[in-house]
Amino acid sequence: MNDHELAAALAAEAGALLLEIRSQGGDAGDAMANQLLLRRLAEERPLDAVLSEEAADDKVRLGRDRVWIVDPLDGTREYGEPPRADWAVHVALAIDGVAVIGAVALPGMDVVLHTGTPPVVPVAHSGPPRLVVSRSRPPKSVDRVVERLGATTIPMGSAGAKAMAVVRGEADVYVHSGGQYEWDSCAPVAVAKSAGLHTSRIDGSSLRYNMPDPYLPDLVICRPELADSVLESLSGSVESSRG
User: Fold this and answer.
1) Has residue 243 been placed in a domain?
2) Whole-number Å distance between alpha carbons of 96 and 76
3) Closest to 92 in 3D by CA, of 55, 52, 39
4) What is the DSSP letter of 215?
5) What InterPro entries does the record tag this protein with (predicted)?
6) Residue bearing the bigger pLDDT, 62 or 235
7) CATH no. for residue 199?
């Protein structure tokens, strides 16, 4: 199978496992989904490097052009609160630092969105922009977007679920600042880009992956027609906290 198909298949496999063992809690889910993904990638792409949230960072990846970047369970809190469905599995392949291939599984919704079959974003709705935000700790930058764009907010769990809400047309903008890592955004960004959405840092610069420090604190995913307005509203709002 090609890389797109592999990303989708592995995200689906990990999602099925997580559903099966959900009663064991988030720690078990993180560990077992990580084991599955690492084993399957070693089988299918033994020459590629891997960066996973749940594994030690092997710096050999810095000498590789192809690096799989995975989050075996994005949204551990939500996963531990059944029947919540706003959690995800991220499987991405960065090539030369760019999020090229990715899959985001939403197992609680029985959905896998991936770059092999780029999603079709629904037409824009007629109301004010809908901004998807963290249900527990929205970043300060959210207030700027709400104020300047007249946006409404939709609280939601994991980064993957929020990003896919924009892809699925359930929201129009996802903004994060103040603390994320490459595994939080690589797969969602790949899928969102394949669907024609805008993706960038909050200063408008490109998102780069497989960096020596995988800390990648801020992110914008939005409908392309809103990108200029969103970025203008965020000007000067970069937050340095790793919270």
Assistant:
1) no
2) 30
3) 52
4) B
5) CysQ/Inositol_MonoPase, Inositol_monophosphatase-like
6) 62
7) 3.40.190.80
- The pLDDT tens digits for 18-39 are 999 999 999 999 999 999 999 9
Judgement on whether residues 18 and 106 belong to the same structural domain of the protein:
yes
Which residues, 6 or more positions from 229, have their beta carbon under 8 angstroms from its beta carbon? 148, 149
Q: Which two tokens stand for residue 60?
A: 């050999």
Full residue range of the structural domain in which residue 183 is found: 130-234
Q: What is the CATH number of the domain that holds 52?
A: 3.30.540.10
> Is 240 inside a domain boundary?
no
For 63, the 3-state DSSP assignment is helix
Residues in the chain: 243
pLDDT score recorded for residue 125: 86
| 29 half-sphere exposure, CB direction, 13 A CA radius | 29
Instruction: Note the pLDDT tens digit of each residue in 121-144.
Output: 999 888 999 999 987 766 677 888
